[in-house]
């Protein structure tokens, strides 16, 4: 689905923000992962960016 959206809308990048439970999904797809630290008490968040 990610590839279809990138192609259909001619996007040069896509980004998402997620938690540690889903970060590996994005990492395995090829997104660059950056920790945003604890945006909420006890919850580390990650920024995920994929450039096409």
**What is the helix/strand order?**
HEHEE
Radius of gyration, in angstroms, nearest whole number: 12 Å
Distance between the termini: 14 Å
Helical residue percent band: 25-40%
Q: Are there runs of 5+ residues with pLDDT below 50, and where?
A: none
What's the total number of strands?
Answer: 3
Instruction: Indicate the structural class.
Output: alpha+beta
Count of alpha and pi helical runs: 2
Can you tell me about this structure?
The chain has helices at residues 2-8, 23-29; strands at residues 13-19, 32-40, 43-51. It is of the alpha+beta class and 52 residues long. It has a 3-stranded antiparallel beta sheet with strand order 1-3-2. The radius of gyration is 12 Å and the shape is elongated. The mean pLDDT is 95.
SSE topology sketch:
Blueprint lengths: L1 H7 L4 E7 L3 H7 L2 E9 L2 E9 L1
Antiparallel strand pairs: 1-3, 2-3
Q: Gist?
A:
This protein has 52 residues and is an alpha+beta fold. Helices cover 27% and strands 48% of the residues.
Which features would summarize this protein structure in a list?
3-stranded antiparallel beta sheet, 2 helices, 3 strands, alpha+beta, 52 residues, 27% helix, elongated
């Amino acid at each position: 689905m990610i590839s279809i959206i990138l192609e259909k809308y001619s996007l040069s990048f896509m980004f998402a923000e997620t938690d540690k439970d889903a970060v590996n999904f994005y990492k395995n797809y090829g997104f660059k992962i950056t920790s945003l630290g604890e945006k909420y008490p006890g919850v580390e968040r990650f920024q995920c960016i994929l450039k096409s």
